[in-house]
Every structure is written in structure tokens, then in C-alpha cells.
Specification:
mainly alpha; single chain
């Protein structure tokens, strides 16, 4: 085992993320909040694409369901965040593909094409009474809450992919026919993977609706599915932390390119093609390979 593998990267990254409001400007906290939520969304898709070998181009439906669930419960019904947030995952796991049509047609509830602006922040006054947090803004408090919740979700997803269930998903990805032959109920495992991925995507959507301060129909449109798929491919399918790296890379690239040219989709697409051809295993695989070379024990 290399020295790099023994470094507790996950806790260090979480700690660094929690310190962003203390050292960064409001802009960097905003970008970091965006990255954290999209990291959870991309990791939920990776459970399907990377570990089960299934591709869902409707994954944004779960994201949109979670966003609307949290937005409706908190704004229209006054439900506290502690109940509205898990409800996003539950409803996203239950309903998916028809959500985009509902977002447009159910004007009384969703606001139709105009969406649902001004989704409130959860009541985080208790955070202002904690040491070192009393001087932070409400948006900073929500960011810190987001980091903690996403870290917990990623921990649960990591346990899932490392469990016998997760190893069975990998077996199905490698050879579904062989898995069926040895007695594995492949469809049941695939359904369970869709439900789990949808639930965590819904939780990401619930956080994004509050972060965005509004919920709109394009949250459930196919372009959101393509965005998160690009993040997963860019970061590295089948590597657990790859989608999070892909989310960070894509959002930062987007921020930089937009500030220089209006033709950012073309430039971004070119960069992505070069990266994907140069690093077939994604950025996560490239970082892992670089780490092995740098930390490889030297022979005497």
C-alpha cells in the first residue's frame, strides 16, 4: 500500500470545504456550494453508470423532484428543513420521468414556466449562536450545513458501493448474463440501483433549490442530465471520488471560460474532448495514477 493511500483524504477535503467561508469571499463560497451539491448529484449517477453499467438520460428528473419537493414543503406548507430535505429523497425515489411535464402544467403548485422563486433558507439561527459562526452570513450557514449533509450522503454511498450489494452491481456491469446464470436476480438489483441513485439525486436537488433561491422547470430538463453525465465521465466512471472531481473541474472551467468569451460551449466542449481522450480513466484516474508514481516506494 502506498503512502498516498494511507492519507485520510475524505476528512481533509471535508475540513477544507468547511473552512471556505472563513478564508474565501462570498463568490468562492457560492462556487464551493455549487460544487458540493453537484458532487452529490454526479456521485448518485455514478452508482448507475460506473458501478451498474446503466445509463440514465433522465437522471435530472430525480434532481427536479427533489428540488420541487423541498421548495413546495418549505415555502407553501411551512415544513421545517429537517423534514423537507429527506422528503426530497423519498419522493425522488418514487417518481421520476413524468416530473418535467408536471413542472410545466401544474401552475397552482409549481408555478409552471415561471417556476417557484424565493424558496426560503432553513431556520439556521441556532448556528449563529455557535462559536466562530456568529459572524457569518445566512448563506454561509447554509453552505456549512450543505457540506455536512453531502459528506454524510457520500459516506452512505461509499458504504453502499463497498458492500456485497455494491460488489454485485459491479458483477452485473461486467457480465449481466453470467450473473443471471449463477442465480442473481439482475432486474431486481438494477431497480434497487435506480431507486438509490434517484433518492440521492433528489437530495441533491433539494439542496440546489434552496441554494438557487428558487426552483424552475429546467432543473428536470434533459440538459441537467447531460451536465451531470459529463461530470461523471470527466471525473472517471467507476471511481468513487471521480464524479466529485469532475463536478469541481466542470464548474471551474465554466466559470473561467464564460468570463472570457461568449462562445464558451464550443470552447468547453473542445477542452472536454481533449481531456477525455487524454485521460480515458477521467481526471480521478489520472490523479490516482499520478499519486502512485509520486508515492511509489523507491527500491533500495
Amino acid at each position: 500500500m502506498s503512502h498516498l493511500a494511507r492519507v485520510p483524504w475524505a476528512p481533509l477535503v471535508v475540513l477544507a470545504a468547511l473552512l471556505v467561508p472563513a478564508f474565501g469571499s462570498r463568490f468562492y463560497t457560492f462556487v464551493a456550494n455549487d460544487v458540493v451539491i453537484w458532487a452529490l448529484f454526479a456521485t448518485s449517477l455514478n452508482l448507475l453508470v460506473g458501478y451498474t453499467g446503466l445509463v440514465s438520460f433522465g437522471h435530472a428528473a430525480y434532481f427536479g423532484i427533489g428540488a420541487y419537493t423541498t421548495g413546495i414543503l418549505m415555502k407553501k406548507l411551512g415544513v421545517p428543513f429537517l423534514l423537507a430535505f429527506p422528503a426530497a429523497g423519498v419522493l425522488a425515489a418514487a417518481f421520476a420521468q413524468i416530473v418535467w411535464a408536471i413542472c410545466f402544467k401544474w401552475n397552482e403548485v409549481t408555478g409552471g414556466e415561471q417556476g417557484m422563486p424565493e424558496v426560503p433558507y432553513p431556520d439556521l439561527a441556532w448556528m449563529g449562536r455557535l462559536p466562530w459562526l456568529d459572524g457569518l452570513r445566512t448563506s454561509d450557514h447554509f453552505y456549512l450545513l450543505t457540506v455536512v449533509l453531502v459528506a454524510l450522503c457520500l459516506f452512505l454511498l461509499h458504504r453502499v458501493v463497498g458492500s456485497p450489494f455494491g460488489r454485485m452491481l459491479t458483477t452485473i456491469r461486467e457480465n449481466a448474463e453470467r450473473a443471471e446464470f449463477i442465480g442473481v436476480h439482475v432486474r431486481r438489483y438494477e431497480l434497487a440501483a435506480f431507486v438509490l441513485a434517484g433518492a440521492f439525486a433528489g437530495l441533491a436537488g433539494g439542496l440546489f433549490g434552496i441554494f438557487n433561491r428558487g426552483v424552475f422547470p429546467d432543473f428536470a430538463y434533459w440538459t441537467k442530465s447531460s451536465e451531470v453525465l459529463i461530470m461523471t465521465l470527466l471525473g472517471g466512471m467507476g471511481t468513487f471520488y471521480g464524479p466529485s472531481v469532475g463536478a469541481l473541474a466542470l464548474i471551474l472551467l465554466n466559470q473561467q471560460i464564460v468570463s472570457y468569451t461568449e462562445y464558451w460551449p464550443f470552447v468547453l466542449g473542445t477542452i472536454l474532448v481533449v481531456l477525455l481522450f487524454g485521460f480515458p480513466g477521467g481526471l480521478g484516474g489520472a490523479l490516482e495514477l499520478l499519486g502512485r508514481r509520486l508515492w511509489r516506494p523507491r527500491r533500495a
